[in-house]
Amino acid sequence: MKRKLFIAVGSLAGVLVCLMLVSACMWPMINVVETGQTPEYPEVQPGYYSTEPERILRESAASVQALERWTLVEQDEARRQLAAERRTRLGFVDDITIRVEPVTEFVSQVNVRSASRVGKGDFGQNARNIEEFFTELDLRLGSVKFDPGADGEAEDAEADSEQSGGGEGEAP
């Protein structure tokens, strides 16, 4: 009986070690993710919107309130900043800061920082928090979403086409 118990405990410990190694390979061992500032998540970038910052802040607050397991903790209109909490299914709490910063007269940038309160790794949850927030915000502000790289890409493509002799109505 003792031998079977020893084998069961040893097997369980081995499985746990394997799971930890696999998770370490899948997710970086960080517990803070910020838009445009986390090299481990280069795809997590700020959002840009071509509308007034006050509207973006209002819609950001409404987005937080609409999300499941999210709580709006503080809204500072003077600093254009929100503080929120997201509680995971296991009861862990992540602190989220949302900042709206005017870039030009017509465009504002939304930066988000998500940080776990406990642990050294978050298994990718903070990046998912930011993605979840932007998905909800884009439902509300999608018509004014702005891609700062889009104009430059279109101009580059036009210039490349003209240089290669691919203009309209021209023979190669």
What can you see in these coordinates?
By secondary structure, the chain is of the alpha+beta class. It has a domain at 29-147: START domain (Alpha-D-Glucose-1,6-Bisphosphate, Chain A, domain 4). It contains 4 helices and 6 strands, in the order αββαββββαα. The chain has helices at 2-26, 53-66, 125-141, 150-163; strands at 32-34, 47-49, 70-76, 81-87, 93-102, 108-116. Strands 1, 2, 3, 4, 5 and 6 form a 6-stranded antiparallel β-sheet that branches. The chain is elongated.
Structural class of the secondary structure composition? Answer: alpha+beta
User: CATH H-level name of the domain at 29-147... which superfamily?
Assistant: START domain
Sheet having the most strands: 6 strands, antiparallel
Roughly how many Å apart are the termini?
85 Å
- CATH topology of the domain at 29-147, what is it called? Alpha-D-Glucose-1,6-Bisphosphate, Chain A, domain 4
Name of the CATH class of the domain at 29-147: Alpha Beta
- Output the number of helix runs: 4
